[in-house]
Design goal:
12 strands; alpha/beta; Arc Repressor Mutant, subunit A; D-Maltodextrin-Binding Protein, domain 2; eight-stranded mixed sheet
Length: 353
């Protein structure tokens, strides 16, 4: 793909009131001053170098010569009057100002791409791209149904779904690499908007061969020294369950740490162990023949919802997905019912869900 064919951005778009380019809300009152126009080519070349960590590798990916990439980056730094790159051995790294420029360059290209796609769409039909991040525990229970409904209503929107951690979703949203996230509402970032869709509860998940599989309710204090499989503490869900255990002064016996939810759930029967997860984790996994036993204790609820940038309302694809999720996910939670004798909720849990 020849990068020279990219359209140029109108220089007036970036000049603003004062001489130079002012990217949206840079931290520490840093401003980039430009005397020359900035166009799409500068942004694309810059991001290619930043991601490749090398001028030559970036040139290969762009399909142009390495001297051309190097010259464009020298011109960009000269126009901005700041250093964007620094050498570390053979690798090219970004300076602190380069990191700021990278965040906004990504956002500008993403917004421009969506704008051009919407501009060329039929009246009343949404076009563009939607990059969705979802935490592992919610991927199987929620995403297939949401994708089916969304693509039926908006067939011209291209969807990308990435299963990553809550922390990674927040970072990707802030850096403009993702449009919307589906996960637990941690409220960690002041730059993000957290919208609750529903509240679930942590339950004790067991297989049919577990000694407690016939029980309807287990008091949380009874989990002391019980055999549990757990996620690593890099998962927000693990940190939540650790806090719940501390609150109840319970120390379970951890049989194993497993960093994949599907593997963890499939290991419950062979290891005759239990795990702590929201009840929704079993939706779509009926074939595993697991049971979620209601727990009796303090503050076992967990809010599930959408994460997006505070100023993302202008993105019509994000608005459409948000509207669908708000209308659909609460109903999906309420419909958590027994589907087979081997994969059932306790009656008490049915009443509470």
């Amino acid at each position: 793909m020849e990068a020279e064919s990219s359209p140029a951005i109108n220089p007036e778009r970036f000049r603003g009131q004062a001489p130079g380019l002012h990217l949206a809300s840079p931290p520490d009152n840093i401003r980039f001053h430009m005397q020359e126009p900035l166009d799409i080519r500068h942004l694309r070349y810059f991001l290619a170098v930043a991601e490749a960590g090398s001028f030559s590798r970036a040139a290969d990916r762009l399909g142009i010569s390495q001297p051309s990439v190097s010259q464009q980056m020298r011109d960009l730094e000269a126009a901005l009057r700041v250093a964007l790159f620094q050498r570390r051995g053979k690798r090219i790294l970004l300076t602190p100002r380069g990191l700021i420029f990278q965040e906004h360059a990504r956002a500008i290209l993403h917004q421009l791409k969506n704008f051009l796609q919407e501009l060329n769409s039929e009246p009343g039909q949404l076009r563009g791209e939607l990059h969705l991040g979802v935490i592992p525990v919610l991927n199987v229970p929620l995403v297939p149904h949401l994708l089916g409904s969304f693509t039926a209503d908006h067939p011209a929107i291209s969807l990308t779904v990435e299963e990553i951690s809550s922390t990674e979703i927040e970072t990707a949203l802030e850096e403009g690499r993702m449009d919307v996230g589906l996960g637990f509402l941690t409220h960690h970032s002041p730059n993000l908007r957290y919208e609750r869709l529903c509240t679930d509860e942590f339950a004790l998940v067991v297989a049919e061969n577990h000694l407690w599989s016939k029980r309807r309710v287990v008091h949380f204090s009874q989990l002391h020294q019980q055999r549990l499989l757990q996620l690593p503490d890099t998962f927000v869900m693990r940190r939540m369950t650790d806090e719940i255990c501390r609150r109840h002064q319970v120390r379970p016996h951890m049989v194993a740490e497993i960093n994949a939810i599907e593997t963890l759930l499939r290991s419950l029967a062979p290891l005759q162990a239990a795990t702590l997860m929201p009840k929704i984790a079993l939706r779509g996994r009926e074939s595993l023949k697991l049971k979620a036993i209601r727990l009796q204790g303090k503050k076992l609820g967990v809010d599930i919802g959408l994460l997006r940038l505070s100023d993302s309302a202008a993105n019509s694809a994000v608005a459409a997905f948000t509207s669908l999720a708000k209308a659909t996910v609460p109903k999906m939670i309420k419909r958590l019912k027994p589907q087979s004798p081997g994969s059932q909720w306790s009656r008490a849990a049915d009443k509470r869900s």
